[in-house]
């Protein structure tokens, strides 16, 4: 606050009988006086109507000092900080006069239109003509005018929405306006009679610092303004803004004058606002979503730590508060950057629109973005963007969908298997029953039993046994209990044995065999490997047309032996190849009525081959047959390995 100039700085000129302050009250820009004390009217001689007229200040103050007064007036009105200055004025008779003016704000106003109190002292008063001796009537009139002026002054003071006060240098109140009783509830005499009233009724938490601050400012003869609490008569706490002026003489404080304004409502509103802002900030930081709020000019008004973490934004980028810079940083991390950019522009162009979008990042994460306009009343002032990491949810959803598809597929496979199995198991039973009935009839009638009926019955039993063995092998594979007996096996010899057995039961099919250049020894289970060959050859015979040729080739392929079985059958659709070695799978172009089986043979073949360290695959084209290949690792030292005697192999 500006310091009040003392009488030491401006000694009273000769002829000034009364150094007491003269007062005006006014406001607005340009300044306009609303009230002038009678003493000031008498001192300068201008009538009250002239003081109240618009533009009177330019008539009162010398042009050289007018600009300084207007500047000080506006500053005090806006900030509430008192200012003191000296002016050259003109009395009503046109005589020059020097004035010391101190401006104090009754209530500051940001637009500079607030009310001010001006305290004036005459430094060089105009020469007054000798007054005639007062008569009795003039004395009565003067007394009435003084009384009226005093009453007006009191009414003005009491109308001010604050406590106007004055104390001596020891902080004992010598004057308090009537508003004191309304604001704090204590009667005026109590303020004036208790020597330590102010200190006694300060809030306990403010008593030490507020009294120390005020005393220090008084010792320094420095005007000051501060806020503190006093305890009202009803026990409540009242926040006051105290604007204090120190009246000093030769650097020694003599009096303190000021106005206490009740700011309790403003303080509570500010505290409520701070609490709301704190709550909003805590909510913003505790949410799992990244949040950013942009004004329409892309200025960032709010952002939380989650947003910064989601997009790996350095502090330097956050400090610039520029949404466009952040947008470019985010865009570099997006897979679908162009799509997101177009959508963002669409939302910005339509300020009322809300949106939900999916953002895919280059690091594999998936974010959901929500956007909606930010409103202040009915006016849209910006847009709120929230980002949620849904990577785990999306992956879980995809996994759930995959499991659901697999479950549905498993149900479908089960239903297909039950249909096929019932058909396949029933198929050999019907002819078997027929042959047995024929045999029974012939035996009962004493007729000879033809061998062909017995062979056909045994063939159906063998077929039924094969189906049951496939089911058992599948069960063992699923349980991990399919056992293998490893021994040196000559793959060429084993292939020839299997072909010899098949030729005896399929005399009308041509089986061609291409032998290897040399012996190929492997370490494996002879019976299980024969089972693989039999299954592949039976499939080739089954799906090849009558008279078709089946070709079998055994060869060395580096450190492995390769076996290939080719047919000229119906072939396999391309989209079915990957599923061909799955359990219960049958190609869609293989009707049940024409081609039997449970769809387990190739599944069992794959397991046996892979357990021997090899692999199995197929090459096929629809309508042009198929070639099944499988490889097995050769023994490292074939010469030292002696294959066992040829042993029967299971079918």
Radius of gyration: 55 Å
Structural class: alpha+beta
Q: Number of helical runs? A: 19
Q: Give a count of the beta strands, DSSP E runs of length 2 or more.
A: 22
Strand order of the largest sheet: 2-1-5-4-3
Shape: rod-shaped
End-to-end distance, in Å? 112 Å
Largest sheet geometry = 5 strands, antiparallel
If you average the pLDDT, what whole number results?
82
Enumerate the spans where pLDDT stays under 50 for 5 or more consecutive residues: 1-20
What percent of residues are in strands? 25-35%
Considering DSSP H and I runs of 4 or more, what fraction of the residues is helical? Answer: 40-55%
Could you walk me through the main structural features you see in this protein, from its secondary elements to its overall organization?
- It is a single chain.
- This protein has 651 residues and is of the alpha+beta class.
- Helix 15 packs antiparallel against helix 16 (451-479), helix 16 packs across helix 19 and helix 18 packs antiparallel against helix 19.
- It has 19 helices and 22 strands.
- Strand 9 (237-249) and strand 10 form a beta hairpin.
- The strands form 5 sheets. The chain has a 5-stranded antiparallel β-sheet. Strands 7-6-10-9-8 form a 5-stranded antiparallel β-sheet, with helices on both faces.
- The N and C termini lie far apart (112 Å).
- 42% of the residues lie in helices and 25% in strands.
């Amino acid at each position: 606050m500006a310091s009040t100039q003392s009488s030491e700085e401006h000694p009273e000129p000769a002829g000034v009988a009364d150094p007491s302050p003269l007062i005006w009250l006014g406001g607005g820009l340009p300044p306009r006086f609303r009230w002038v004390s009678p003493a000031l009217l008498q001192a300068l001689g201008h009538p009250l109507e002239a003081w109240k007229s618009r533009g009177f200040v330019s008539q009162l103050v010398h042009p050289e000092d007018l600009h300084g007064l207007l500047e000080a007036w506006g500053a005090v009105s806006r900030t509430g900080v008192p200012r003191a200055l000296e002016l050259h004025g003109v009395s009503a008779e046109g005589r020059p006069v020097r004035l010391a003016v101190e401006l104090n704000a009754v209530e500051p106003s940001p637009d500079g239109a607030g009310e001010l109190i001006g305290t004036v002292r005459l430094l060089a008063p105009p020469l007054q003509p000798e007054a005639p001796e007062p008569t009795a009537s003039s004395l009565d009139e003067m007394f009435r005018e003084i009384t009226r002026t005093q009453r007006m002054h009191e009414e003005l003071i009491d109308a001010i929405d604050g406590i106007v006060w004055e104390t001596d240098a020891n902080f004992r109140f010598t004057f308090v306006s009537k508003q004191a009783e309304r604001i704090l509830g204590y009667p005026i005499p109590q303020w004036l009679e208790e020597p330590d009233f102010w200190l006694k009724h300060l809030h306990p938490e403010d008593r030490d610092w507020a009294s120390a601050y005020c005393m220090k400012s008084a010792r320094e003869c420095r005007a000051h303004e501060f806020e503190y609490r006093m305890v009202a008569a009803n026990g409540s706490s009242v926040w006051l803004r105290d604007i204090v002026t120190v009246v000093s003489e030769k650097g020694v404080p003599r009096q303190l004058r000021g106005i206490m304004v009740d700011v309790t409502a403003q303080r509570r509103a500010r505290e409520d606002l701070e609490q709301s802002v704190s709550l909003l900030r805590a909510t913003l930081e505790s949410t799992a979503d990244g949040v950013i709020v942009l004004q329409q000019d892309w200025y960032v008004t709010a952002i939380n730590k989650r947003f910064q973490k989601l997009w790996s934004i350095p502090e330097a980028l956050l400090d610039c508060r520029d949404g466009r810079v952040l947008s470019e940083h985010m865009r570099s991390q997006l897979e679908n950057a162009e799509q997101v950019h177009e959508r963002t522009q669409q939302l910005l162009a339509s300020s009322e629109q809300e949106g939900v979008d999916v953002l895919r990042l280059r690091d594999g994460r998936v974010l959901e973005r929500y956007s909606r306009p930010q409103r202040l009343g009915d006016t849209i002032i910006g847009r709120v963007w929230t980002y949620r990491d849904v990577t785990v949810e999306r992956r879980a959803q995809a996994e759930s969908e995959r499991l659901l598809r697999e479950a549905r597929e498993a149900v479908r496979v089960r239903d297909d298997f039950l249909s096929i199995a019932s058909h396949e198991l029933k198929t050999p039973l019907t002819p078997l029953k027929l042959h047995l009935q024929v045999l029974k009839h012939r035996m009962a009638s004493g007729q000879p039993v033809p061998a062909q009926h017995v062979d056909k019955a045994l063939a159906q039993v063998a077929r039924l046994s094969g189906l049951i063995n496939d089911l058992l092998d599948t069960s063992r594979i699923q349980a991990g209990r399919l056992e293998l007996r490893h021994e040196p096996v000559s793959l060429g010899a084993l292939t020839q044995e299997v072909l010899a057995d098949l030729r005896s039961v399929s005399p009308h099919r041509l089986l061609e065999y291409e032998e290897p250049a040399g012996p190929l020894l492997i370490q494996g289970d002879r019976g299980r490997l024969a089972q693989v060959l039999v299954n592949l050859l039976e499939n080739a015979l089954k799906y090849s047309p009558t008279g078709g040729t089946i070709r079998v080739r055994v060869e060395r392929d580096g450190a492995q032996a390769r076996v290939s079985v080719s047919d000229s059958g119906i072939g396999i659709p391309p989209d079915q190849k990957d599923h061909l070695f799955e359990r219960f799978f049958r190609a869609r172009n293989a009707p049940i009525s024409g081609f039997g089986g449970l769809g387990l043979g190739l599944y069992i073949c794959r397991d046996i081959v892979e357990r021997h360290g090899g692999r199995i695959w197929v090459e096929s084209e629809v309508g042009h047959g198929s070639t099944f290949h499988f490889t097995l690792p050769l023994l490292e030292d074939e010469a030292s390995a002696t294959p066992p005697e040829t042993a029967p192999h299971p079918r």
